Amino acid sequence: MNNTKPVRVAVVGAGYLGRFHAQKYAALDGAELIAVVDTNAERAAAVAAECGCEAHGDLATVTDRIDAASVVVPTSGHHDVALPLLTAGKHLLLEKPIAPSLAEADAIVAAAATAGVILQVGHLERFNPAIRELVGRVKQPLFIEAHRLSGFSGRATDVDIVVDLMIHDIDILLALVDDRVTDVQAVGAPVITGQVDIANARLEFSGGCCANLTASRVSTQDMRKFRVFQPGGFMSADCARQTNQIVMRGPDDAIVPEMYEHERADNLMTEIEAFLAAVRGERQPEVSGDAGREALRVALAVTADIERRLGQLDQGA
Predict the structure, then answer these.
(1) Is residue 290 part of a domain?
(2) pLDDT above 70 covers what percent of the chain?
(3) Going edge to edge, which strands form the sheet with 54-56?
(4) pTM for the whole structure
């Protein structure tokens, strides 16, 4: 598209996260926020008034006037919202997870490819400076562990903890380890919702790397930490504080720790700026539809093993 003109965008979904998307677009010179779209007219009007754009209840009323959209609706609605936009040739920033099923994810990825448009999946932590530091430094990961814990918020209860939160760390893991997952072992339990609210997964790769991931949305403390061990030392990322600790073997086998405190970054703004740059043809999307689909595939394998174990418990009761 013409790189000199602002990208005309709509935000579909005016909930908690959709409001933030709208705020970011409204603040950017490289974007023109045309509308906020939501079936809840009152919610759409409130966000639109805050961001200085139109409010609509029907996406079809604005499709012809936009170049791109952020789709920030519940995961169960991703397929039905994304496909008409992609078919109409609109670029999409689609919140994670890409879809609730691989069949729907495949349909979304195929529609984007057929239309020749950008499809970026909203795995926000990829834009965290602490994670970017890891991606730039990790060379031969042997063991990885991640903890992603939070209190219960009441949001995203249409999906389990694996595709709500653990999928962030699955996506980071797959970005760090260029290899195939060969074994998945997982445990988890529903605590507050009817879905699994706390889970632990052990993933093994064909090259020997192992990862242990823990996620909870029923914890009394918040934690978003990622650690990578490789020959010569280890590295950690505190996603909440946006800091890194790098501990490497130095001269004479001395252990030399280093701390990196990054300038505080707005991860969502960085993600949206990257999406707009991809729409303008300046770069490839950092998290492609294929990457989002692969993260979903592994997440569903984790969920399947948890359900298998829970089924065994039910049978033994």
Answers:
(1) no
(2) 98
(3) 54-56, 31-37, 7-12, 68-71, 91-95, 119-122
(4) 0.94
